[in-house]
Amino acid sequence: MTRITLISAIALLSACSGGIELPDLRASGGAASVPEPMETAAPVLTAKERLVAAVEGQGCVIDATTINAVLANASLSSADLAAAAGELEAEGRAIGNQANGSIRIISAGCPAV
């Protein structure tokens, strides 16, 4: 008889709870656990964007003294640099100087001179 009463009580309590949410007290030792916010992924930069950012950090000019730092900071190969610089020049965002072999980037951080 006790067994039937216990089963009836559990059935009655579960039917009466009707959507009440109880906090999960197991995860944090007594306080209700709050889900941690998901980190948003950093935007993926194109080769041109990485090149512009790296050149801005080196004084807006790619020359013999800054080329290695620019390639390393932009994670570009020499071929990638040539392609990206060519695209920037076609867009009017880079000016090449054949006399000294330098390239000047024009951007928000590097105004035209």
Beta-strand segment tally: 3
Spans where pLDDT lies below 50 across 5 or more residues: none
How much beta, percentage-wise? 5-15%
Q: Provide the succession of SSEs.
A: HHEHHEE
Largest sheet: 3 strands, antiparallel
Structural class comes to: mainly alpha
Helix content: 40-55%
The dominant shape is elongated
Q: Strand order across the biggest sheet?
A: 1-3-2
User: What's the end-to-end separation, in Å?
Assistant: 95 Å
State the gist of this model:
This protein has 113 residues and is mainly α. It has 4 helices and 3 strands; from the N terminus they run H-H-E-H-H-E-E.
Write structural notes for this entry.
The protein is mainly α and 113 residues long. The protein has helices spanning 2-17, 47-57, 67-74, 78-90, and strands spanning 61-62, 94-97, 102-105. A three-stranded antiparallel sheet has the order 1-3-2. Strand 2 and strand 3 form a beta hairpin. Helix 2 crosses helix 3. The N and C termini lie far apart (95 Å). 13% of the residues are buried. The model has no long low-confidence stretch (mean pLDDT 80).
Short descriptors:
mainly alpha; three-stranded antiparallel beta sheet; elongated; 113 residues
Per-chain topology:
Blueprint (H helix, E strand, L loop, with lengths): L1 H16 L29 H11 L3 E2 L4 H8 L3 H13 L3 E4 L4 E4 L8
Antiparallel strand pairs: 1-3, 2-3
Helix pairs in contact: 2-3
